[in-house]
Amino acid sequence: MLDIQVIRKPEDFGNNLNKQEFIDFLYNQLGEFGDKKEAISASIDYAFSEEEGKGGYLLAAYENKKLVGGLVMNFTGMTQYIPKNILVYVAVHANQRGKGLGSQIIEKAKELCDGDIALHVEYHNPAKRLYERLGFTSKYAEMRFENK
Lower CB count within 10 Å: N or C terminus of the chain? Predict the structure, then answer.
């Protein structure tokens, strides 16, 4: 049975888990589809922020008291032209994939969200199919300009 803990502030970490361990878990399990640890940390700080227009939460998923999944959701502070929520990171431990844990974690996140959810996924990421099965659609391709 998957036990999913909602973490809205640093004090909510439980099961002997702390912020750095959560960052390390996401970093290691996201692999080629992840970001630097500093970026993951920044998304968590944003989720914990009490500033207007910021905030969010983390989900830590446990099976037999062992961390097997994690998610970071940030609030965008917008509603009409950009979804109110952005699913920044979601990962399941490599040894636990294919068991439906990712679906359970994302469904829990959907329950907790007030408003639409956006996420970014690379076209060749196998998780793209999971997101589509869970009702996410590709509205448009994101393009970026790197202002160096």
Answer: C
